[in-house]
Amino acid sequence: MRRYAGPEDLRAMQSLTERIWTLRSYCHIGDQAWERTHIAGREAEWPTALWEDDGQVVAWGWVFLPGGMHFIVDPARPGLADEVLRWFDEVAETNERSITLLDKETHLIAALERQGYQREDSPVYNDYMRRPLDDLPDPVVPQGFRVRHVQPEDLSRRVAVHHAAWHPSKVTEESYRTAMNTWPYRSTLDWVAEAEDGTFAASCLIWLDERNRVGELEPVGTDPRFRRRGLARAVCLAALHALRDAGADQAVVYPVRGLAKAAAAAPLYENLGFAGYGRTVTYVRR
């Protein structure tokens, strides 16, 4: 029933995420696509296991050595959560274990408490926010810029704007190309604000879960040289219009609260009409 997973099993992991996704879920299929591809060469740091029943994935655990893990368990099979946590004990390389999840995932929180984990209060957390797509305003693009989705030939500039916004970044052209070739990436949902000289000044990538008609913004960023001009708002709105045109009816985003370098993120999304519906919590066992 349990087997170790390799890079080729990403789609199998996403199949469970997609099948059980609700606004009570920590993970969206876009999280897995982006996190497992945008930095190359980390497979050895990420032991991953799948639990299957009759060919269907019903749980998975994704360890971040030495002692962190993400895990998802089908709410119809809550008892598997304890099994995933016992497996985590087998592969972790430190006596301290740490797991972050959404505060609404009560079936996972119950298992953590059974296994001796305790909630650790922290001023830093992800604010889970959503926005319906039925009343989107049109983007207002600052003079001297245009917004558009990326093309294959834009790869180097697309990586450059990500580096500028997220410095220091380990994203390379090779790793971003891998992300672009990973389901459910669509170039029509990967948007940039372009200056007259061809420089990409801001970007917004959205991942669409067609089954649940929800898109996740991950990542969004602006080159520091171009901040405070309304470019992030413009590029996000353009991408959200494209998301609605692709069949989605809502979008989600998870800005960080309580971290100085991310202080502008949540106010941006609030200005775009996003509202909170949950937050992350971290459980630790020492």
Outline the structure in words:
With 286 residues, the chain is of the alpha+beta class. The protein is 28% helix and 31% strand. The protein has eight helices and 14 strands. Strands 1, 2, 3, 4, 5, 6, 7, 8, 9, 10, 11, 12, 13 and 14 form a 14-stranded mixed β-sheet that branches. Strand 4 (68-73), helix 3 and strand 5 (97-102) form a beta-alpha-beta unit. The mean pLDDT is 96.
For the largest beta-sheet, the strand count, sense and barrel status come to:
14 strands, mixed
Could you tell me the radius of gyration in angstroms? 19 Å
Judged by helices, strands and strand pairing, the structural class is alpha+beta
Helix content range: 25-40%
Mean pLDDT: 96
Count of individual helical segments: 8
Using the alpha-carbon principal axes, give the shape.
Answer: globular
Number of strands: 14
Please report which band the strand proportion falls in: under 5%, 5-15%, 15-25%, 25-35%, 35-45% or over 45%.
25-35%
How far apart the termini lie comes to 29 Å
What letter string, H or E per element, gives the SSE order? EHHEEEHEHEEEHHEEEHEEHE
Low-confidence segments, given as residue ranges, are none
